[in-house]
Please model this.
Amino acid sequence: MTGKTLTRADLADAIHRDIGVSRQESAQLVEAVLDMISDTLVKGETVKLSSFGSFQLRDKNGRVGRNPKTGEEVPIDPRRVLVFKPSQVLKERIDTALSK
Amino acid sequence: MIKSELIEKLAAANPHLFQRDVERVVNSIFEEITQALERGERVELRGFGAFSVRNRPPRQGRNPRTGDAVSVKEKHVPFFKTGKELRERVDGKA
Model:
């Protein structure tokens, strides 16, 4: 496993390379896509991207947690969390590629 | 929201681009992320989240119907950790 990490700039490069729009516009398009997905999730709506996966919201009940270091009880408020469910296609592509 | 709706939205915000190219932009982003994960690399999108691959080591499982022991091979599964900003926003804290 390599330690390489891709960022927004790499996604913008891919758009620049694949579609041929300027680097600056490519960067804006990446941002626009991430913003549209984020804004939809913030409204509480699921985002489904076929063959990639879906971003879903899950409402968690409040509970009593514990500080693992001190053993002290701390209340954890009910909260809404985002979970990503990878599609079957994505899971298979990754497992196939890395199981060689 | 599904992918086609995301493409529509992005097309509406970018009327100078062909619908076909907007479609390619969206596909290009997720294909690039997928290919990075296929190489075992991480994709970190600050404020949004980070995609990585987690290793599930091989283990001895059981067929729940028959109780037979079966060996389960090592698995590589995609994982997403929500970024701080988005995590706070979906919870209504930001």
Summary: DSSP finds three helices and five strands in chain B. The first strand of chain B starts at residue 42 and ends at 45.
